[in-house]
User: What shape does this take?
Amino acid sequence: MKNLDMKTIDSEEIELQAAEWLLTLEENSKVSESDEFKLWLQQSEQHEKIFHMMSHAWHLANAVNIDALLEGTEPSEVHQKKNSLLSRLTMAFEHKWIPSIAIACCALVGLWLVIFGGSIAPQHSFTNEVASTENRSQGDFYQSGIAQDMTVSLIDGSQLYLGANSEVTVDYNSQQRNIHLVKGEALFEVAKDANRPFTVYYQGRIAQALGTVFNVKESAGKLLVHVLEGKVKVDSETQNLLPSKTLVAGEAIRIAKNGSMSQVMAHNYHAKMDWQQGNLVYIDAPLSDVIYDLKRHSNLAIYIQHQSVSEMKYTGNIVVDNLEVWLDDLPRIFPLTIQKHGDTRVIVQRE
Assistant: This one.
């Protein structure tokens, strides 16, 4: 990154600079700790807001149904723009062309404009303020940090409990209450409102509350739904020929990347999910899914070297405050070796 002038810069130039920083961070996350990046971010409130919203746009484009965010826009136009922009970004990353940073920056700015129209919506890290009118739209973005949970009181009286390193957008209006899970895990205590459905979306998969408490978690592209109280109707936009399923308290379901649903499963449910009490519980889960979850709870970079290791099945309980202990004990359970390189852990199959 070149040194940037501290003088006032118009919004378009800030957007391009934000896109360049974001692409730099995609290649090397440690840049976020650099003085140069921090100095740029602190130039003005607008710098910070534009950067965070553009970062959100990049994650959101791959994680939610964009059509649901854009009322009055033709679906074909949305998908055409989104696919064009994403393909340009992907090519820039994969081929490392000389002009790739310029192309990718322009594409990323365009993607942000497609999704948000260039508007700077508020980003929150703490409890949301209560809106002054019931009909006010709430289009907010919430993000928790690594190993940090978060509680948000929504405008309708519903409670949102966000798991570690998770992101959601909240979009309320007078007709509906839509939540878009960008990544991670969230539990909802839904306030009853017969006139406004409460619906959670994740990559074309849908969970609609029928006055309830339920948990949603994305794990390597899959969506898991657990119902703790009341009922939840689950559906898939990609498998629209299949009937929806209604879950009741004590039931769970897994929805695959292609939208296919597992059989309804029973789960041991309490007033809270295990993750809210610092525990991660797995039953016959692929080790790759377990490691995927652990990365939200630790600053360690954890990698699996072999596909055969990824497919190993794990059953057990993990205390999130003792992840290092669990990793050290893993070779006692499986024929594995844990290689340590600073804050990086590589899980390899023992020969």
In short: The chain has three domains: 11-116, 123-266, 278-349.
